Amino acid sequence: MRRLLLRLRSRSSSQQEDDRGYSMRRCSLNNAALGAVGYNANYRYPNFFTFIPNSKTYPHNRSEVNKRQGRHLIGTVVLHSSRFNEF
């Protein structure tokens, strides 16, 4: 467990951190992943990260073509690295 925490800390420290100490990571998440982390509640999964969708892709297009192709939502994930010690 201690080794896992050290690995998480070292990984998050290698990313860019903003002035609040949150590490910013550009990424894309598909709809299933967003549903799993509860993006309806202010795009926030309370313990680990916040997902901020790009305005161009949100709200996402619900057309059948996009559903079939599994289009990804593009946005920024803010990792709250200081909360990893709550394991």
Give the radius of gyration: 15 Å
Order of helices and strands: HEHEEHE
Query: Strand order across the biggest sheet?
Result: 1-4-3-2
State the low-pLDDT regions, or none. 10-32, 35-45
Question: Sheet bearing the most strands, described?
Answer: 4 strands, antiparallel
Mean pLDDT: 52
Helix content: 25-40%
Q: What is the distance, rounded to the nearest whole angstrom, between the alpha carbons of the first and last residues? A: 8 Å
How would you classify the helix and strand content by structural class? alpha+beta
Count of discrete alpha- or pi-helical segments spanning 4 or more residues: 3
Query: Any idea what the shape is?
Result: elongated
Strand content: 25-35%
User: What's the total number of strands?
Assistant: 4
